[in-house]
Amino acid sequence: MTILQIQKAELLNALHLPGTPLIVTNVWDAITAKVVAETPGVTALATASHSVSNVRGRPDGEGISVNEAIEAARVIVQAVDLPVSVDFEKGYAPDAAGVARNVRRLIEESGAVGINLEDSVGAAKAPQFDIPTAAARVTAARTAAEATGIPLVINARVDTLAGGGEWAEAVARANAYLDAGADVIFFLGLNDENKVKRALDEVNGRISVIGNPGAVPLARLAELGVSRVSFGPGTLGLTLAALQRAATQLTALGEYPEDLGFPFAL
């Protein structure tokens, strides 16, 4: 299992290729993982903490416990053969030592080969941990991964712009996290092409962004050199929107939606 997990981690890292970005359609349970994994062209999966929490009737922002988060990850990993990156929020711990313990548990107990790690203190995008503290938490995750022998792919999130902060601080954080052991920077707030270009110029490593309506188009993100695009809870939103449309049509005695016959099975 360790050899396979190492191979999956190495593959996940290699898939973060500037100009040919890894597109991860975020999932939240076994059946969504399986359906997405079986889609042609899909090479890796990523969870979304917001979705994982909401489908359990809990809020995002570590609304579930670390035990629940690890179990949710285990269920998803075991449902598929592809590498899985887990949105691990803030590591479910107030300090770096706790982050290290929990990341090690996640790797060993779930089989995950990648994580997102946030730098904000609470559920909102601000305030953030100060840069040395946030960087130490990234280092703790890297140290924990090294102890397991798994080359975990760390996608370190920078919440500065999304929280109303300044550009210079966001870039300083990004580079500090890369120096601390992150593989990729999940740079929130790159909501136009100029910001994407600037981040790619000023950050000393690969860039991950979130895609949504009104954002820079996927093809253009690839041309610019982005390495990963995810959609967070947006994929749960589009699923719920489709369900609501179908419920409206059925309640009105309308035609059976074609997707009502969508084949699925675990």
From TrEMBL:
Keywords: Lyase. Transmembrane segments: none annotated. Pfam families: PEP_mutase (PF13714). The keyword Lyase applies. InterPro entries: ICL/PEPM (IPR039556), Pyrv/PenolPyrv_kinase-like_dom (IPR015813), Pyrv_kinase-like_dom_sf (IPR040442). GO terms for molecular function: lyase activity. CDD domains: ICL_PEPM (cd00377). PANTHER family: CARBOXYPHOSPHONOENOLPYRUVATE PHOSPHONOMUTASE-LIKE PROTEIN (AFU_ORTHOLOGUE AFUA_5G07230), PHOSPHOENOLPYRUVATE CARBOXYLASE. This is Isocitrate lyase/phosphoenolpyruvate mutase family protein. It comes from Cryobacterium breve.
